[in-house]
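Technical note accompanying the year-one report. For the benefit of new consortium partners, we illustrate the data format agreed upon in the data management plan: each record pairs a sequence with a structure-token string. No post-processing was applied to the example shown here.
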Amino acid sequence: MAFELNPSETPESLQNKIEETRERVRSYDPEYLGRYQPVDVQRLWEDDGFVASYLEAKRHVVADTVKMIDESLQWRNDFSVNDITEDNLQKSFLEAGMHYFRGYDKDGNKLFWFRLKLQAKDSRTLQEKKRYLAFWLERFVRHEPGALLTTVFDMSESGLGNVDMEFLRFLITCFQVYYPRLLAKILIFELPWIMNAAWKIVKSWLGPDAIDKLKFVTRHDVQTYIELEQLPLHMGGMDVFEYSYPPLPEDDFQPPLSESGQGEVGDAEVKETDDPEPRLRKEGDGDSRARVTRRPTTTFTGSLLRLSPGRELCFGQSEGDRRCVILLENIPKNLVAYKVRTTAPDNYRVKPSSGVLDPGSSVEIMVSLHGGSQASPQDRFLVMATEMEKAVAGDNQDLAQFWKDIPKTKVMEHRLQCKVLQGVKPAHIQTTNPHADLTNGAGGQQDTHTMLLKLLAGSRRLEQKLDHCLWTENVLIVMVTLLTAILSCCLYTQHTGLGLF
């Protein structure tokens, strides 16, 4: 997990505070007799980033950090957070779609959507709603460790009956205590005026840091934080996604290349990349990585791995467009060995290009253009995966031998295409017609489709503005009519009164 270093801290002093924090937490219960869950204890002792996130939340004050970790781990134990699964959740919540992940904001943070109109205040279901929220937060932390969330409260078509203050307080506690340093921003979309009083109470529960992250937005300014393509239609965006269950939604829900994950690579021979570096996390913290790396927006679910993106890697000339991230998630309950190859090993660097995933774990693979190399639509990437026994897992040499011995029939393969972003001249292709990219090939069709979507969104916004103008006109007509009637009554009364004298 990535974490920030306090300017007054050195790496050595921070490490000392991490170790001191661990020992002082242990002093609360030396044998952890039912106080914490074993898996959380193991994470406390092995994951420096986990401890450092609490230290950062408490301004590196060890005494306050110890209390916070104790409260968090006790809650995880009492709530049985590690045991919450899709199978033991109330299905009506999953089917309703109150919460889901989809897309990224402009800073590269995953969007966590809250559809408030689908939530009703009911004390009988409060505990189950808390488990439901914990399920989503755990799912995110395990799938994208060290990443940040932007929570979007979609309050359109909602009222006071949809506001559950106890649930909102639990949500705030999650971000303040149970999952510190997870929240990037809170966007409140179209807050009805009738809920202002309720949200003033909610703001009083937030700390100074959280208040700074709270943003109230409308259809007119929400694009300050989220791209048009990532916004749903009712927010003035272009995303036509509609939640449905099952299955649980992933990043973009576009169909995979094929059901089996098999596909044609082309005539070029697929070669293995030379990768001397083992981990992506050493390149920088989560925030900086999000700003310089294109985040996955599609998924593919195979027999062994879930891949994001599921269709293509997009490259351009700017710094942020010269890198892409491939997310791999282990689906089965066994170890899975993975390996990534490319048809152009001299042009790309893949870090890590191979490794082993524990059950339920995930890894981020950085694919970057090397030196002055340019991407080409002819380039392909091959992701390979196979199950393996624990006894086989070893160093890189043993892993290389394992891949040589494994039968091809036991290997899951999935191909990713290379897409050159618009405005970038692809390698090995000469274009004489400046409009060729809009009229030829799949890329031109996609660009045309995007233009049509933008026109449709613009037309929809104009239609809404026209409806607003018509509504305003009708209100003005009614007001003028009323004023005319009142004036007529006044004149009649005055005339009648003068006549009496």
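Partners are asked to follow this layout when depositing records. The mean pLDDT is 76.
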